[in-house]
Here is the input.
Amino acid sequence: MKKIISGIAAAAAVLAAPMAFAQTCSAPGGPVTTSPSSFNSTCTATDEFNSICAGSVTAIGTSAVYAVQVGAVNNFQITVTPSVNTYDHAIFLIGPGSCAQTTPCVADADNAGPGAAEVLSPAANIPTGTYYLVIDSTAAATGCVPSSVNFTGTLPVSLQNFSVE
Here is the structure.
């Protein structure tokens, strides 16, 4: 019985790893493919983005990046809430298909202030593809806090294969 429980715990840890260790554009967490979806985010020790979304915000803190698969007919909202009331997030949705600092900005949020939730509401029915959620900070160049990330609305994935037997 102990071996079965250990095996289940190991499998759960492996399945949770992509969300728990989201790091950079080259190795993003996710992909997030359904909504509603909720998970906890941690950040890296690097500042991957300095100025993003055509310079609308200078995000000097550490970053976390998640791949978000968007299907046809979508209408969703992303809320990121820090666990510490002094931490000030800046969040961005960029893409589709690229995660460079110069990638077009679909939506950004940096107006809630320290400790408050930032909310992104992209336009409904953005083109299908892979987008990148960047969770950054404007409050400090070092350090990071865990944050809760919630997707609500419709974030469907495309049907890849279908058969009837």
